[in-house]
Each structure stands twice: as structure tokens, then as C-alpha cells.
Amino acid sequence: MTGEVLFGMHSIYTVLVDDRRMQCRIKGKVLKADARAWNPIAPGDLVEIDAEGRILAIAARRTSLERWNKIGKAPQVLAANADAAVCVTSPQSPPFRPRFIDRLIVAAEAGGLSPVIVLNKDDLPCAPETAARLERYTEMGYLLLRCSAHTGAGIDRLAAALEGKTAVFVGQSGVGKSSVLNSLEPGLDLKVGGLSAKYNRGSHTTNYPVLIRSAGGLRIIDTPGIRELELADILPEEVAFHFRDFAPSAGACRVPSCLHDGEPGCAVAAAAECGEIHPDRYESYRRILSELRHG
Question: What is the spatial distance between Cα 41 and Cα 13, in angstroms, rounded to a whole number?
Fold first, then answer.
């Protein structure tokens, strides 16, 4: 039988087979998976199982969203076979983190997903610098949707953008990811956490990635709040291709294989220095590059 993985923990997975949930386990060494992976199976995976609920094989993934799991010291697949990676952020409470967005974009595009930026808490004041950074993402061609789970504004537009797609939701703790999902599908009743007054950041309310298939047709892979997103299985020389604002300048670099990290005659660095590329975004790129080189 073929089923779709909804979630799993400790080698026990809940798999949907013909609208029936089955609790399944991996069958010994028969399952072919990446030996380095922190988790061999992820929500959204299509698996072959036998009548006793043993998972025999995983179908080839169409897309995957991965990160580096610091505890397991291995790549971790957060979601398989999704169409879009939705990065939920906020203008404040917790503070806007554009470098987190940059990392999610790289991870999404490297795995074959379309990045979507969702600014929740749009009812709160937005600093001019934050508004300017968001405008730069739209200028680069990324889909930016504004909404407020508190007031309900923009939720309909978000639902329309996700119609017919499987979307994995990612965000830092406290940005209101669970609240947005509750607004998208009334009745989900996902646990919502508050903000730490001391650190102005949220607490984890989702413990592990889970595929939600609602009666209303919603297909969402919800993930735990992430404070740091470290990238996995991306080569340093590939990173710049996921920074679209580098493209107009990159061809003018003096060094053909320029990584835009201190090489003489780097046109990307020059563009960042004069403001054509946002200096903080350039620094975001260099930090990712350093992690991949030395991590």
C-alpha cells in the first residue's frame, strides 16, 4: 500500500492510507535513506507499507525543505513534496529578522520550493527600515503577503495564494505562525504561546513537523518555531544564486569564480558599498557563506 506521512517521532510514523490513519514503523535495513540524515522520513513523504504497518520504501521526493540539526549534527528534512515555503515574520514583538528570511529563501529554493513571505501582526506599527527591507523583497520578485491573525485582515488573500498547494510554514517563535494557521482554518485549535517580556521572543508551541489536511482543503506542514536556521547540503558556490539582487552586478566581477567575499574587483561588494545591494543583506550572505565553509 502507498500512504502519505503525516508526522512521526522515534521511528514511529502516522501514515494516511485511503483516508485511514495507520501507525507504522521502519522495517529494519530495508528502507533506503540518507545515512547522514537526522530523520529518514518527513511529513509529506509518500511511503510504501505492508499490511502489518511496516514502512518498506520512500518514494523519490519532488521537493524538500532541509536545515542543519545542531543537536543531531546532521541534515534534517522538515517537509517533503511541498510546493511553497512560507516564512512567517512580524514587524515587531518579536523584532523583524530579515536575515532569517534570507536563510529560508536559500533553503526553499535549494530544495525546489517557492518562497513566500508573510508579514503577520500587520496591525502593529512598522518601522521605516522594516518597510524598506520588505519592499526590496518584492522588488526581487518574492511574494509578500501582509495579514493580521488578530484582526483577520489579509487572511483571505493568504488562503487564496495557498489554494491547491502544499505549503510548509516556518517562523521564529512568537511571530504568530500558529495564530495565522488557526485563522486560515477555524477549528484547528493549534496551541498559541505568548512572548517573553524579558527577551521579546516566543516559546515553542509545536513540538515536531506535522502535515495538516483539513476538511476545507488546507494542506499545511506546520513546523516548530525556529530561533536559528542553519543551512544544510548547500555548496558555498551555490549560495549567491539564491540572492537575486546580486545578479545585476555578479557578471562584472574581475574574478570569474568570485564568491563575493573579499576577492579583488568584486562588483557585488562594490554594489553593497554604494547601496545598490542592502549592506545588511550582503552581510547576511557572507555569514551564510562562512558557516558553510567552516561548519
Answer: 8
Q: What's the predicted TM-score (pTM) here?
A: 0.91
Q: Left if phi > 0, otherwise alpha if psi is -120 to 50, otherwise beta: which for 33?
A: beta
CB 142, CB 126: distance < 8 Å: no
Sign of CA dihedral 43, 48, 50, 51: positive
Q: Which contiguous run of DSSP H or E holds residue 292? A: helix 279-294
- Closest Cα partner for 155 from 132, 124, 125, 186? 186
Strands 167-171 and 143-146 turn out to be: unpaired
| Interval 124-171: pLDDT, tens | 999 999 999 999 999 999 999 999 999 999 999 999 999 999 999 999
How many Cα atoms within 13 Å fall on the side-chain side of residue 281? Answer: 27
Q: Which fold has domain 236-294?
A: Ribonucleotide Reductase Protein R1; domain 1 (1.10.40)
